[in-house]
Amino acid sequence: MKGTKLQTADLDKQTFNRRILQIFRDRKGDVISGEELSSMLGISRTAVWKHIKDLRRLGYTVLAVPARGYRMVSSPERLVAEEIAAGLPTKRIGKRIICLEETDSTNNVTFRLAEEGTAEGTVVIADAQSRGKGRLGRSWASPKGVNLYCSVVLRPSMPPVAASQLTFLSVVAVARAIELSTSLKAWIKWPNDILINGRKIAGLLNEMSAETEKVNFVVLGIGININMRQEQFPTDLRHPASSLYIESGAELDRNRFIRTLLKELDDLYDVYLQRGYGPVREEWLSRSQLYGRKARIDCQDRTMTGIIRGIDDMGALLLDLDGREERILSGDVTLL
């Protein structure tokens, strides 16, 4: 699988690049000598120089100050695994990060990696997708250089019927990351969309490999419109869509945003493993504008209209149909 199988040497190189970036970040523009970097990293000065060259190749501007050392001047605009990982304070998610310039779908790549045994918390990020996937087999517009398309491997010990809970976990993490990175308020639309000012900003598509009684792995697929311009949206969208840039008027540093997202996802996953679905469900409900609202639900085989009463422990939408409760597992919600 071209571009995704990293050898041990590649992982070692990423580790040292990440540590050097963290040192530069901690020292905030200081000039740091090659000798000091060599001592801190436990490698030769020649190896330090090779890693500095590699960082420059990735798009970092690192100045060599004669007789003094190196100073970091600027970071690249493109997505870089080392930049995302540097200083990422997570327990599980993001210990291995793979950045691709383009792929068909990050979910496809990540699913194959998971089948090959990649560790829990592996993250695959693409700068562009040729066949981005949305819910119910729909496509996801995935232009280059402006958005986030990523997938994460989780290996929870749970029955397959409970795996849908992770969809609600990941959508809450996205809402948190948006609010930490912008002044915008993110609302959740069942089951897995993020809306800002009534327009869709993000969507999630989780896929699973399971046996009868256990989950082998779950792939969390996340697509967020970050710096996308209006003219980049398709004209045939089913629902109004927007981006964080359009709604806030400011471009975001995508590497920094992804770092925030992975931190929130890791925190929520840790809470989920320790305390179960309850805290995730409560936060999801607090971020939803659905409770008590009249809505039309378009399912594959029928359309229903009723009052939304929340979600159950498996994430099914609870719809009150004149006193009779209906559990809905999938469909499109239109508030009336």
Automatic annotation (TrEMBL):
Residue spans binding DNA: 34-53
Which Gene Ontology terms of cellular component type are present? cytoplasm
Task: Provide this UniProt record's keywords sorted from A to Z.
Answer: ATP-binding, Biotin, DNA-binding, Ligase, Nucleotide-binding, Repressor, Transcription, Transcription regulation
Q: State the SUPFAM superfamilies in the record.
A: C-terminal domain of transcriptional repressors, Class II aaRS and biotin synthetases, Winged helix' DNA-binding domain
- What InterPro entries would the database entry show? aa-tRNA-synth_II/BPL/LPL (IPR045864), ArsR-like_HTH (IPR011991), Bifunct_BirA (IPR030855), Biotin_CoA_COase_ligase (IPR004408), BPL_C (IPR003142), BPL_LPL_catalytic (IPR004143), HTH_11 (IPR013196), Transcriptional_repressor_C (IPR008988)
The record's Pfam families line, in alphabetical order, gives: BPL_C, BPL_LplA_LipB, HTH_11
Listed EC numbers = 6.3.4.15
Class of enzymatic activity (EC top level): ligase
UniProt catalytic activity = biotin + L-lysyl-[protein] + ATP = N(6)-biotinyl-L-lysyl-[protein] + AMP + diphosphate + H(+)
* Listed PROSITE patterns: BPL_LPL_CATALYTIC
Query: Family, per the entry?
Result: Belongs to the biotin--protein ligase family.
Name-wise, this protein is Bifunctional ligase/repressor BirA
Give the source species: Geotalea daltonii (strain DSM 22248 / JCM 15807 / FRC-32) (Geobacter daltonii)
